[in-house]
Amino acid sequence: MIKSKLIWGIICLVIAGVLAVANLALPPESLTFQIGDQNVPWVPPVVLAIVGIVLLATSKQREEDVAQASQVERTQDPEKVALNKRMETIAWGAFLIMLGGFALVPGGTIAKGWWSIGVGVLMLGLNAARYFTKIRMSSFTTILGLLSVVGGIAQLAGWKSLEGGFFLIIIGVYLIFKPYFDKRQLFGKAEEG
After folding, report:
1. Which uninterrupted H or E stretch holds 34?
2. Burial label, 148 (beta-carbon count in 10 A; 0-12, 13-18, 19+)
3. Which of 107, 123, 165, 183 meets the CB 3.0–4.6 Å disulfide criterion with 141?
């Protein structure tokens, strides 16, 4: 049993329960969760309940799997370390060039959403390059890249208040598919074989 998933699953379900009771007991104006111009206070309890259920469902892992995973010796491949370092340097260089270009362009010329989309494409591109060169991807930059692209699209569409909802949805989807990612060992330290 994975205790951290169990604990966080229980915490998510308790918070979802408290929010659901508050939604039922308090007047509709007292709790707000805005999506566009509409107040939908039931969205956070539903998302937290789904995340809590997924965490509880995935917390029961066979002890043999956990023991085998801890016994697997991780070694660093010097070629992969060097390749990953080169790819990260290229991504940072592209980010700084984009940042400089964005600073040189006058304020209203380019919509703000394009900046977020550009940053997200850089992060996702770095992880795609890692994937195709058999280097483990970074879950942190993958999720940030997805959030950045979705947030940029939301900004371009004029849905500035939806970014928080997209954040919850992407985190929830990641948690649902985390056992699949762990089984295939897609995410982790880039240098490990």
Report:
1. strand 34-35
2. buried
3. 123
- pTM of the predicted model as reported, rounded to 2 decimal places: 0.54
**Listed residue (105, 187, 173, 192) closest to 138, CA to CA:** 187
Give the torsion through C-alpha atoms of 76, 81, 82, 84, to 10 deg: 160
Distance, in Å, from the CA atom of 126 to the CA atom of 190, rounded to the nearest integer, reads: 11
Look up tokens 């400089």; give the residue: 100
What gap in Å lies between CA 89 and CA 100, rounded to an integer? 16
Token pair 């992880």 is found at 127
Burial of 12 (0-12, 13-18, 19+ CB in 10 A): buried
Q: Are 112 and 77 in contact (CB under 8 A)?
A: no
Q: Are 150 and 108 in contact (CB under 8 A)?
A: no
